[in-house]
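tokens incoming
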């Protein structure tokens, strides 16, 4: 008998050692996948029944369950679940006769409690809400209304001047404009705070917000693309609920305090941050604007346990002067994306053993990766079971031709394990792609068809990725006409059009270049000056300062006599991107954006060295 017991124990030990050696992540994968499947089962139940519990429904449930628990802390103000429930009810009461179920309203607001109160209030009326990027202006801002069909605009008091020049056209189109003020002196702009304060806090009938299909749109979140103007990504209740489960999947609980310094018009802060807080019944500390110098002070003051980040945010923190109490905090987890390996390691060395949880996924995309293991440098983790549920592939990509490589039969080709390829995600009932509002053409541009067999369809992420032998997925680069800088996607076509308005510029080609020590790519433009004109650095400086948000302004200018084109007359940017902005290796005149002189000045070798070394900030 004892020999049998000994043999059994020896077998179990051998199996354990074999598992540790051959499948080191098995149990952690199994635990994480179990959580994902549990959450997915709830969504599947919603799909198959007429009873859909939306994010707003979940908030109402939490407000009834924990009415006195702090939900939001912002600028010294604390709102409980119950208080925000009543505030959003007041909003719904103000507009209950002005809008009907299915209408769209737009919010142009900075991070503040009433952003969320308005969002929830209009959702309680069955409306879809469009989150407008607070950096966009004039033509781009006007475009946002036409593509999502918004009939109301709610503007924060601090952003009213941003819509000053388009107010006449909005009013001509019958779009009502409301400002978060107690009284308004501008003709056609209605005050809102006084109306909210006078309204009843009683809830409107729940039937107004009832949803029978998870695929019903609830939000429009604008993302930059290759079209030159912002695109309104359609966010359905299905996508909103999936995003709200992010914190929970990583093991967060209702006792956590979540710090959100990202703008609410981004899906990370709104869908993952606020939606995730609601799902957990946790507390959110909302920062109006990220401050590297105040970050750890805020975390200590509010006992923050989880914070949201983008890679740039962590780099800014690492660049702050060293302090004695840097590890004196309760933060145990960071959730975000775009964290570079060197910044990741430096962040952990300085600020302690914080679990950094990378999430990969675009606002409009149908695929998400989560690095639940915490391997430095990976954006996600896959395995055999994950691949059964989520159909994605990495295919060979021709950087010069700017298109996937296809074989003689016209089908895409898989890359080998470890090789870099274009990430594609299969579009099917389980992973639908809802596209963009207002343009079927824009939606179709993100779809690749006949990828592996005739009739199939895949969402084109536009990202080059690699998957290693251990199933970790790493981001390599972006393709196409969009690059990322300061945590924002920059549409090169839009910047090109803005530069083309300058009288001495004949043609421009905008692209992103890598700057050592910085996340993403900085804007650079190759420019042809009109024969009868000369380059005017001050005029160009004033123009881009007025017309473009800070992250989209080209930091470097390269003067050329001609621009390289492809056979289909598309601008060829591959060689430009590869050559960068080093004056030692580029014979063309180079200029850089200098705020101290308020002009584009010649880019010399010494200036280049100061940028590369980090002495001169960009």
């Amino acid at each position: 008998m004892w020999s049998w017991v000994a043999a059994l124990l020896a077998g179990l030990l051998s199996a354990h050692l074999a598992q540790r050696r051959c499948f080191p992540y098995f149990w952690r994968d199994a635990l994480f996948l179990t959580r994902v499947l549990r959450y997915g089962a709830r969504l599947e139940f919603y799909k198959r029944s007429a009873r859909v519990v939306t994010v707003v429904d979940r908030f109402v449930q939490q407000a009834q369950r924990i009415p006195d628990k702090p939900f939001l802390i912002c600028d010294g103000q604390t709102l409980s679940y119950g208080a925000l429930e009543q505030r959003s009810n007041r909003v719904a009461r103000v507009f209950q006769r002005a809008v009907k179920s299915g209408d769209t309203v737009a919010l142009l607001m900075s991070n503040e409690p009433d952003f969320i109160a308005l969002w929830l209030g209009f959702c309680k009326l069955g409306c879809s809400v469009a989150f407008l990027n607070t950096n966009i202006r004039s033509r781009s801002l006007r475009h946002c209304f036409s593509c999502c069909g918004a009939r109301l605009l709610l503007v924060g008091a601090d952003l009213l001047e941003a819509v000053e020049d388009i107010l006449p056209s909005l009013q001509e189109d019958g779009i009502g404009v409301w400002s978060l003020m107690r009284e308004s002196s501008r003709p056609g702009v209605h005050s809102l705070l006084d109306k909210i304060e006078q309204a009843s806090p009683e809830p409107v009938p729940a039937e107004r917000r009832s949803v029978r299909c998870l695929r019903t749109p609830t939000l429009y979140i604008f993302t930059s693309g290759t079209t030159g103007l912002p695109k309104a990504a359609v966010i359905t209740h299905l996508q909103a609920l999936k995003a709200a489960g992010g914190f929970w999947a990583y093991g967060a609980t209702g006792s956590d305090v979540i710090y959100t310094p990202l703008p609410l018009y981004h899906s990370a802060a709104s869908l993952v941050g606020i939606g995730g807080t609601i799902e957990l019944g946790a507390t959110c500390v909302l920062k109006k604007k990220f401050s590297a110098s105040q970050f750890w002070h805020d975390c200590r003051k509010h006992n923050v346990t989880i914070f949201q980040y983008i890679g740039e945010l962590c780099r800014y923190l690492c660049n702050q002067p060293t302090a004695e109490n840097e590890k004196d905090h309760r933060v145990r987890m960071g959730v975000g994306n775009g964290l570079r390996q060197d910044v990741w390691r430096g962040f952990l060395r300085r600020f302690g053993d914080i679990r950094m949880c990378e999430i990969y996924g675009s606002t409009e995309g149908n695929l998400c990766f989560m690095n639940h293991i915490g391997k430095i440098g990976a954006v996600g983790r896959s395995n055999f079971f994950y691949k059964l549920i989520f159909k994605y592939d990495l295919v060979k990509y021709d950087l010069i031709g700017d298109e996937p490589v296809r074989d003689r039969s016209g089908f895409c080709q898989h890359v080998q394990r470890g090789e870099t390829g274009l990430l594609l995600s299969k579009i099917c009932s389980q992973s639908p792609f809802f596209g963009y509002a207002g343009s079927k053409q824009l939606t179709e541009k993100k779809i690749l068809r006949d990828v592996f067999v005739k009739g199939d369809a895949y969402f084109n992420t536009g990202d080059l990725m690699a998957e290693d032998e251990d199933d970790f997925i790493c981001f390599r680069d972006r393709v196409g006409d969009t690059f990322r800088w300061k945590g924002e996607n920059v549409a090169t076509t839009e910047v090109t059009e803005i530069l083309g308005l300058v009288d001495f510029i004949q043609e421009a080609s905008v692209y992103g270049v890598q700057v050592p020590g910085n996340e993403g790519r900085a804007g650079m433009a190759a420019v042809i000056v009109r024969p009868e004109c000369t380059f005017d650095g001050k005029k160009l400086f004033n123009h881009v300062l007025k017309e473009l948000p800070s992250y989209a302004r080209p930091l470097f200018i390269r003067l050329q006599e001609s621009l390289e084109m492809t056979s289909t007359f598309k601008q060829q940017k591959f060689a430009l991107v590869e050559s960068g902005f080093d004056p030692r290796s580029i014979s063309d005149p180079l200029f850089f954006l200098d705020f101290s002189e308020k002009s584009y000045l010649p880019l010399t070798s010494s200036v280049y060295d100061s940028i590369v070394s980090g002495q001169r900030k960009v």
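note: The longest helix spans residues 26-48.
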